[in-house]
Amino acid sequence: MFPFCFEWAWDVGHAIFFGGLWYAVGILGAGMTFCIGKAAWDTINDDGEGHGGHH
Amino acid sequence: MDSALIPEGAKRCAFPKFMIGMAVVGAVLLWGVYAMFLCWFKGLNQTNMNDYYGFALWIWADLAVIAIGGGAFFTGLLKYIFKIDELKNIINFAVIIGFICYSSALLILAIDIGQPLRGWFIFWHANVHSMLTEVAFCLSCYFAVLTIEFIPNILENRQLNKVPFFHHLAHNMHGVMAIFAATGAFLSFFHQGSLGGVAGVMFGRPFAVREGLLIWPWTFFLFTWSAAAFGPCFTLLVTKITEAITGKKLVGDKTIHLLAKIAGWMITTYMVAKIIDTIYWATVTAPSLGFSLSHFYTNNAFYGYWILIAEILVCGVLPGILLIMKSTRENPTTRLVAIILATIGVCLNRWVMVLQIMAVPVMSFDTWALYIPSWQEVATTILPVAYGIMLIAVAYRYLPVFPQELELNKSAKAAE
Amino acid sequence: MIQHENAHKFGMVVDLDKCTGCGSCMVSCMAENNVPFKEDETRKKDSITWMRVYKLTNGKPFPETEVVYMPRPCQHCSGLGDHGHSPCVSVCPATATDYGYDTGIVSQIYTRCFGCRYCMGACPYHARYFNWWDPKWPEGQENYLSPNVSPRMRGVVEKCSFCYHRYQLAREKGYMEEREIEENEYQTACTTACPAGAITFGDLNNPEHEVTKIVKPDPHPDPMNKNVVGKSRNPKVFRLLERLGTNTKVYYMSEREWVRKAGDNYLDGEWDKRKNHHGSSSDHG
Q: Considering the domain boundaries, does residue C151 fall inside one?
């Protein structure tokens, strides 16, 4: 799973398998981070300007 | 009592009635949970598995729920990537069904392994050459995708949606859902395929082994294809059951017909590939290893040619044809027959690819091995069904799952 | 593939015409390897028998009935094309079973196995066993367990290791004395226990070893099936399910044709054709 696990080998099999896997996990992580971050930002802006009629 | 949680304008049964229903299903669930703890604490000696049947009822159930849960990724792919907007009317429900199927699959795997506390070894000490490793990774990641796809629907609950953060989160998640759906489709392609690969790479088992493309046996592609083909049928079937229980029309006919049509063509094309695969295996692969087709279907008390005919013709070709023909597809009765047969068909395929493989003798002096599951196995296999019913009931009651519900039931309401 | 130039390739040949079916190999194996047993051993399909003796008959009525006993340890397959990808090793998701390129032995790491049993499904010889129960020995017997073999816990798979601990002991001794190990220094428990001397064990890569002299393994792929490597050039010697390409390192020997035929599966009439071919191809080495 990680390069420090002793089964790990820097070969094509590991590159393809874990390359694909970490890529997918990365997208999911980045996507969720973006959504949560933006939601927090939007919420704070709502609070700050909520009554100011910004929307 | 709980009216503040029910979607605005939606009509639901009285709370006590709902709770009685939940209690009945909950009792079944508890029975399954009890069996599950027996297996965890006393070990797999609680099952009737043995050294001939290392893979048994659970693995079948696992493969079957993943196959019929395939409706989630395929509908998501069609809706978000191929932009078939009509499917927005069923996508929430497809995701919930997928979520139930995949969480069940993970639970079954957690019960099935002999040392549950070492379950993480499959990730940590991963052998990248094993199909099961690929299954474990993609399955877990895809379950994360399904959770992500389910969250916005949960946050749309009337009360939760009042919380500004949740409201924004749901909105933002909808905005980037296409990326999640694409990732989900990528992961699904591999784990559905790898589940097929699990059988196809067993070159010591002539009933299972298949040639293939590079490292992937043909079963890899057949499993992905069949999940995409039969998964939507299960989504339609559960929709139909939910409509029957609630006594309401929940998804418009246009959406149903469209999804049925897509499933029909997927099933038909899959069956062509499956028949070619079966013929090649029966006439080339197996004979080259010294096995005639009759070896796999005779001399035992259960597995006859009937299972091959049932899987391929009755529960494969027939539903495919019923769903691609407009007249039978749009007729509620024949459509219902088709989606029931299709669901049985894919489950039968997974049965054959797990249990029949174990049953067939390989050494010339070996014998057929048949097994009957113990009650603990049956109970833990029914457990996900009870859990699924409860989750659907709760989701239907409190979440805006079906966007067309109010519109479709307006006339009925007016008539009351 | 990591393969030492002077790698061993341990294997055995069982002379089925000598085997009497006495079961000494099974008993010695269980004692040597601390194989647990159940209180009730009537359900044979979940009994652990690393070495199991099968009874085969020619299916003919009396007085032509013939019986042969076939001891079956783990076959230590080297997989399609002899590349070390045995049916079980390649499927294990947690790298809990491994192919030793320096010995040809398929190992099982009990503390790594989490009991998914995929390897059992993949093995056509039923050589792999699951610990359905925790091992339990009658009181006091635990004092007599072999100190060289770790007992296994519930929920993991185990199998014959070709008494690997004996190899380790011999190897360490050889290392200390700065010499290679001798043929008789590493012998499995079943081999030494067989009263009929039916089992011959040794290094198939060493032409001096008795097993190699009997088996005469062909290092080239079989022209009829490129997946098959190490086929015996002795017409009396065969392997179990050789056509699958598992490339086992356990060979069997018999004078009797029906016994050799029982080692594999053949379509109707195919055996006679192949038998003739085997006779001609056996000369080329």
A: yes
To the nearest whole angstrom, how far is the Cα of A32 from the nearest Cα of chain B? 8
Question: Per-residue pLDDT for B416 more than 90?
Answer: no
Virtual torsion, Cα B219, B221, B227, B228, nearest 10 deg: -160
C260/B contact by beta carbon, under 8 A: no
Residue whose pair of structure tokens reads 């038909």 in the numeric block: B268
Structure tokens at B240: 């139909």
CATH number reported for the structural domain that contains residue B42 in this entry: 1.20.1630.10
The answer, yes or no, to whether residue B324 has pLDDT greater than 80, is yes
Q: What's this model's pTM, rounded to 2 decimal places?
A: 0.92
Whether B54 is in a domain gets the answer yes
Instruction: Quote the domain boundaries for residue C124.
Output: 10-281
Rounded to the nearest angstrom, the minimum Cα separation between B124 and chain A is 5
Comparing CA positions, the residue from C14, C30, C11, C10 lying closest to residue C194 is C14
The whole-number pLDDT of residue B59 equals: 94
- Partners of residue C92 in chain B, C-beta under 8 Å: 127, 130
- Non-local CB neighbours of C86 within 8 Å, separated by 6+ positions: C76, C77, C78, C79, C99, C106, C246
B178 and B80 Cβ atoms separated by less than 8 Å: yes
Asked if residue B71 lies in contact with residue B235, where contact means CB atoms within 8 angstroms, the answer is yes
Number of domains in chain B: 1
Please spell the DSSP secondary structure of chain A, one letter per residue. --TTSTT---SHHHHHHHHHHHHHHHHHHHHHHHHHHHHHHHHHHHHHHTTTT--
| Cβ contact B169–A36 (<8 Å) | yes
* B258/chain C closest Cα distance in angstroms: 40
Closest residue of chain B to C124, computed from CA coordinates: B204
| CA gap B123, B137 in Å, rounded | 7
CB proximity under 8 Å: C 167-186 to B = none
In a domain, B415, yes or no: no
Quote the domain boundaries for residue B57: 15-405
Count other C-beta atoms under 10 Å from residue C41's C-beta: 11
pLDDT in tens, C101-147: 999 999 999 999 999 999 999 999 999 999 999 999 999 988 999 99
Which residues of chain B are within 8 Å of residue C123 when distances are taken between CB atoms? 204
ipTM associated with this complex: 0.92
Q: Which chains touch B (3 or more CB pairs under 8 A)?
A: A, C
User: Interface partners of C (3+ CB pairs, < 8 Å)?
Assistant: B
- For chain A, the chains sharing at least 3 beta-carbon pairs closer than 8 angstroms are B
B208 found inside a domain: yes
pLDDT category of residue C3 using cuts at 50, 70 and 90: low
The string of pLDDT tens digits covering residues B361-404 is 999 999 999 899 999 999 999 999 999 999 999 999 999 999 99
B296: pLDDT strictly greater than 80? yes
Q: Are B338 and B182 in contact (CB under 8 A)?
A: no
Question: Among B122, B127, B128, which would you mutate to test the A interface (most chain A Cβ atoms within 10 Å of its Cβ)?
Answer: B128
Mean pLDDT on C81-100: 93
Of the candidates C115, C124, C129, the beta carbon closest to that of B204 is on C124
Q: Return the pLDDT at A52.
A: 37
